UniProtKB/TrEMBL annotation:
<protein>
    <submittedName>
        <fullName>YciK family oxidoreductase</fullName>
    </submittedName>
</protein>
<keyword id="KW-0560">Oxidoreductase</keyword>
<dbReference type="Pfam" id="PF00106">
    <property type="entry name" value="adh_short"/>
</dbReference>
<comment type="similarity">
    <text>Belongs to the short-chain dehydrogenases/reductases (SDR) family.</text>
</comment>
<dbReference type="InterPro" id="IPR036291">
    <property type="entry name" value="NAD(P)-bd_dom_sf"/>
</dbReference>
<dbReference type="GO" id="GO:0016491">
    <property type="term" value="F:oxidoreductase activity"/>
</dbReference>
<dbReference type="InterPro" id="IPR002347">
    <property type="entry name" value="SDR_fam"/>
</dbReference>
Length: 248
């Protein structure tokens, strides 16, 4: 994946929704998708951050994006259904959905894990992703070539002590990805995969590893090859796969 070189117009004409688009990998992915021709729908909790990404995309000359401020920590079925209705009214279909928004929680032994923190992590990382995917599936099925990407982590592929709700949520994400991919493989044009971004210079990484020198870590924009590959037509036929953005 490191050597994958996407063509400039890879995503031309495609409509892509990115959650957690205001910062980190979500921001970098939104900018990268736009630079390759996609029309972006930017979803996130903080409007001012989304507006900054909106301005950067508009200034680049890429297709004009859309904004949907939404706090996934409190989003239920009605809010997610409303997101889908807005997209249908404005665009009529959806060609891509990147689930990037995530909550870290705390690195704590399970026997001491706080109930409220557990619930918040599961809400943002799993329940909201499920609800939003379910709401958007009719729009994705209208596409001739749709891609759903779930952001996971290595602790969601092999359990590790102290990663608590975040690790459990990533295991759930991987399972949801595999189930959905299998359900959609036969009779739709929707493919579903997951990406482990690996160690990246983000605020979430800094919270998880506060003593780490992040200077040696890649920036979010340095790991976009896997995201572009899965979002674009070069990955047609690839579904149900757990990919890594960086070699391990």
């Amino acid at each position: 994946m490191k050597n994958y070189i996407p063509r400039k117009d890879l995503l031309a004409g495609r409509i892509v929704l990115v959650t957690g688009a205001g910062a980190g990998i979500g921001r970098a992915a939104a900018l990268g998708f736009a630079a390759h021709g996609a029309s972006l729908i930017l979803l996130g909790r903080t409007a001012v951050k989304l507006e900054a990404v909106y301005d950067a995309i508009e200034a680049s000359g890429a297709p004009k994006p859309a904004l949907i401020p939404l706090d996934l920590a409190t989003a239920g079925p009605d809010a997610c259904d409303q997101v889908a209705r807005v997209i249908e009214q404005e665009f009529g279909r959806l060609d891509g959905l990147l689930h990037n928004a995530a909550e870290l929680g705390t690195l704590t032994p399970l026997e001491h894990y706080n109930d409220a923190t557990w619930d918040r992590v599961m809400q943002v990382n799993v329940r909201a992703a499920f609800l939003l995917t379910r709401a958007c599936l009719p729009l994705l099925k209208k596409s001739a070539d749709a891609s759903v990407i779930f952001t996971s982590a290595d602790v969601g592929r092999q359990g590790r002590a102290y990663w608590g709700a975040y690790g459990a949520s990533c295991h759930a994400i991987e399972g949801m990805m595999e189930i959905l991919a299998d359900e959609l493989a036969a009779n739709t044009n929707v493919r579903v995969n997951s990406i482990d971004p690996g160690p990246v210079r983000t605020s979430m990484r800094a919270r998880a590893y506060p003593g780490e020198n992040s200077a040696h870590l890649p920036r979010p924009e340095d790991i976009l090859a896997a995201y572009l590959y899965l979002m674009g037509p070069d990955s047609r036929g690839v579904t149900g796969q757990a990919l890594a953005a960086q070699p391990r």
